[in-house]
Amino acid sequence: MERLHMNHIRDLIHRLRAGESERRIAADMGLSRPTVHKYHALAKAQGYLDQDAALPDDTTLQRVLGPGPQPPRHASSVEPYAEAVKTLLGQEVELVALWQRLRDTYGYRGSYSAVRRYVAHLEPERQESYTRVQSAAGAELQVDFGGVGPLFDPESGRLRPAHVFVATLSYSRHQYAELVFDQKVPTWIGLHRRALEYFGGVPQRVVPDNLKAAVLRVLVHDAVLGEAYRQMAQHYGFLISPTRPHTPQHKGKVENGVHYVQRNFMAGQTFADIQCANQHLHVWIREVAGVRRHGTTHQAPLRLFQEVEQAALQALPAEPFSLCEIRTAKVHPDCHVVVAGSYYSAPYAYVGQTLDVYVRDNVVELYQGSQLVATHLRCRAPGQWQTRLEHYPEHKAAYLQRTPDACRQQAARLGTATSTVVHTLLAERPLDRLRSVQAILRLEETVGAQRLEAACARAVYYGDYRYRRIKEILNAALDREPLPEGPAAPPATTHTFARPVTDFFPQEPS
């Protein structure tokens, strides 16, 4: 039995819970039917198919169903005939004929099944025949991108290559389309969310092209779905059926839709910027593309959608999907990880370890494996901090709790001079000077309250409130000396040269 990636296992169980047949799951996920059957039996035996039961954490799933050591793969009996197979495939010879020619011409004695398996591994996209599939109402949404040339980006102030995203309901052929500048995960997720909101419902399955944002690896037999995309599918309740690489016949409706937008909307038109183009595109979808007589259905897509397919869609969830970007970050000695230039605290026990960071729309979550270790509100600008004092060791947490008000209260307890120093420092830019004040107050731990008060009194007498000056007074034991009588000499406001001015500006000889 094949051993699957953890994401693959969760997706398989999700499909089984949704009532998918083993045959359909095997086709969509690029797995053998025996593998699907074995995992089906294991999941059923563990009670994982109960809709009301929550799935266990990754640690438990890993132990029960997760990846394990795989036996070495044996060389195929067809391997010695690899060049002949490639030549015949290049001539578009069907598999049965290819097997026969290997036997007749090259002396191959293996089975047809061995040839079929070898070709499937060598050229996974190859199929012996194609059948037009008519989808039921609400069953399928096909999605894809296509290039449309450069458009003006008002944010960057320059022309950028643009793409059109097209989502086509397979039954009615009604479409949603939008122009964008990239195919990154946040864009991909946002386009799906807006498409489903536009249709007002959710299809049973979505058929994406094998884009980097949708599928991490374009191997039909190892299609590890992007984690964010998988979470979105489960949130909305649709299944993902990845299109096999380089096989547009699997997804003809949407590719025709992309070409239709490229040739009938974009061709020959110019727009001020991408926002203007999208405004015109949305009107065109409803008033032109939506009311035309479709060549296959012989009906207007918008009308067929409104009369039949819209009612067949599943209801949208109460809340839209919140995008989750997943990355890793190391916990630094200050008990924080850095994410997009902002800082989030983690328990000090994890210092030096690398955690998984789930960045959602409004929340940042830190995980070690499947264990949630911290949750924070998301910072909206670089340089911001989210800190929970309980993440620090006890002695450091107590130090950090010294806010400006708390520092003033502690200084008042220590004495008049200490209070004067603290109030003076915090009078202007209190947040900038808070660390200096905290450092001064922390001196009590090493020298005691009496010596600190005396040192602050000397600092006040001379008008120098800096931490460094107070520390020097204590190191030199000047706090034990009595203060001079009378007022301190005011600081010099004018300066004189130690050498005559003529030394700097020598007179020229007369």
Q: Can you give a write-up of this model?
A:
The protein is α/β, with parallel strands linked by helices. It contains 20 helices and twelve strands. The chain has helices at 6-17, 22-29, 33-45, 58-65, 82-90, 95-106, 112-122, 185-199, 227-236, 252-266, 274-289, 301-312, 394-400, 404-414, 416-426, 430-442, 444-447, 449-462, 467-475, 501-504; strands at residues 140-153, 158-169, 175-180, 205-208, 239-240, 325-330, 336-339, 342-345, 354-359, 363-368, 371-377, 385-386. The strands form three sheets. Strands 3-2-1-4-5 form a five-stranded mixed β-sheet, with helices on both faces. A four-stranded antiparallel β-sheet has the order 6-9-10-11, with no helix packed on it. A three-stranded mixed β-sheet has the order 7-8-12, with no helix packed on it. The radius of gyration is 35 Å and the shape is elongated. The model is unreliable at 68-72, 125-133, 212-225, 244-251 and 491-505 (pLDDT under 50).
